[in-house]
Amino acid sequence: MPAGGQERAPGGRRHPGPVHGDRRTPPGRGAPPVGAAPTSVPTALRAEARAAFEAAVEAVRPGTVLPAAARRRGTSLLLGELELPQVPGRRLVAAIGKAAPGLAAAWLEIRPDRREELFVLAPHGPVPPEVEAAATVHHGAHPEPDAAGAAATRELLDRATGLGRDDLLVVLLSGGGSALLAAPAPGLELADIRRTTRLLLCAGAPIGALNTVRRELLAAAGGGLARAAAPAVVRTAILSDVIGNPLPDIASGPTVPSPTGPEEALEVLESHGVLERVPPRVIRFLRSPVPRRPDRKWERCQAVILADNRTAVEAAQCHLAGGGFRVIVPARPLAGEASSRGRQLGALARVLAPRHPTAVVLGGETTVTVTGDGRGGRNQELALAAALALDGAAGRVLLAAGTDGIDGPTENAGAVVDGGTVARIAAQGLDPVARLARNDAATALEAAGDSLRTGPTGTNVGDLTMLLVAPSSA
Question: Is the pTM of this model over 0.85?
Fold first, then answer.
């Protein structure tokens, strides 16, 4: 494997598992919630979409993926094709990101001797009791970093700095790590990171642009964690939430060198119109001529992708095909402004007239340029825009949701909409067009009973969007 190289592990097993459906009460289980759909709603299509999403999430859970990738070769453990060598010294295992608790629990399952030091950095919330008992557990905030995450990152960097040539650092990495690895680079403060992150998110910066900046501003990003661990061997196993799996963009690449520098970060700030609004200290830092990145021997650092957005897409595709759907998976991932993509998918659904049940499954990550004061996230924004385009169309359903179960600063994973969604929103006294303009998709979709609420799923490989169309009667 080349220095800093990447391999892809074999696909994980799929098992049925509970993911709660949207807020609609199942038939025969009490009164429907406010805004519940009339009986003409294509409930079968909605159920198929939710079940396909459930199958996709289950396929990328740490407890599915990590045991499926693990095997022995001599005295070494392999994760896919990534070898974790036996070393005579210390072994530090760091699970980082939204999937960190599940990754740590799965690690304990495949490594029952528990000889390693186990460090967990996850979003605020509960962790499995076996992880609490065996690991040092820290929490941080997402998507905007907090002081707890910064303190945890400094502790992790301190531990890594104590590693030597005979030691091993294993990083179990998942999406959300950029916000959790919140310690600022020397010369910056947490407030600088928070302000810059918020400005870029509101400007609709895609993940690659956002992480181009983060890699310069965060102490552990852009290979910072691996540099701290030098000259120890570093192995990174990844659940990727970034389309195409560019290693420097996954959690801002704590164990790989950055392909960009301060100049590119300044270009991102300028191109998104926030250069004049970020803290002056950030600009001075990026324009400083002082080199900030000592090098290390990257051939001792290797990585493997255990699962990614494609894994989830393929699991949804398999589920739907098994249910009799003709499934279309576009070659290009879903990207761009969420509302624009939603309108396009809604328009596509209206013109489809298939002879057989048909599904379009897309993975990716859209963005939202925030101009309003409402609640929502990119998946709910896309779904509401699609609902407007679908208004009155029968036999069409669209699901858009995050595999992490979280869409923006809401409790919803996304939404499931159909041709009756707009009427249900209006029946609750809300104007769906105005709500979309205010970036208030969550309020509108909750009123319709169309929000999809799963709770945090314990994994994160990006977003899924599914369009299901019933056979044409013509």
Answer: yes
